[in-house]
Design a protein that fits this description.
The complex is a heterodimer of chains A (about 220) and B (about 50). Chain A has a domain of about 150 residues. In chain A, helix 1 packs antiparallel against helix 7, helix 2 packs parallel to helix 7 and helix 4 runs antiparallel to helix 5. By secondary structure, chain A is mostly helical. Helices cover about 80% and strands about 0% of the residues of chain A. The longest helix of chain B is centred in the middle third of the chain and has 47 residues. Chain B is mostly helical and about 50 residues long. At the A-B interface, helix 1, helix 2, helix 3 and helix 7 of A face helix 1 of B.
Amino acid sequence: MAKTGIYTFIVCLLIGVTTYASFYVAPTESTMGLVQRIFYLHAPSGMTSLAAFLVSFIGSVAYILTRKPRWDWLAVSAAEVGVAFCTVVLLTGPIWAHPAWGVWWAWDARLTSTLVLWLLYVAFLILRTMIEDADRRALVSAFFGVFTFLDVPLVYGSIWWWRTQHPQPVVFTSAGLDPTMRKVFYLSWLSLTCLMALLIRQRYELEQSREELRTLEQELEAH
Amino acid sequence: MKNLDSVFAAYLIGWAVFFVFSLTVAKRAASLKEELTRLKERLNESGPKGK
């Protein structure tokens, strides 16, 4: 419990430092001006959401192979956290796009595939509420989780494979991103990844409690 | 200071999503814990009778 408290405190501290750096340390971009600062929340949230979906995919595959409930718990926990991060991406994107592009939304490959990804994972979570039996629910959602993950490489590669309104990547390329901007970006990515780990853990513990509850209910019925 | 409102809106909405998500997980956990305590008490009460 104390360990979780310390970890939560570190994550909050990291988020505070990142927000400060995004507003006061990173230089103002010359073309877009202030609105470019949304980049430090928008882009790392997108990358973190893909990382969470990767964790969910690993959980789904591991459940299919081993049928151990803990992998199903990991898959659903990471999927829910991934949806939260993807929601941030889909909300902050249009706020940035409106002043930068003059439109809130464009049906290009990156934006559309991201929206489809969000819808698929929301469907994954809804599907789980529709199946009563725990083992059947875990198996069906594991297969659906594997299928859903197929959209992730599509989202990632869309800006290379198609001409899109969305800008080309600037972080892992030799594109001219200011060194300070790059550092602030990495800091933001680190803090959001730590937040993702914390949220997945919180959500995983919820699944553990649910299992405990199911066992107790069965014991009570047996009495 | 052009577009400062957009930057604030983006950060406010972004952090609000994370906060609300964390809050809903904590709320669900608290309700489950309550239910667990209630069931454990019931099990303790019915335990000796069952035997």
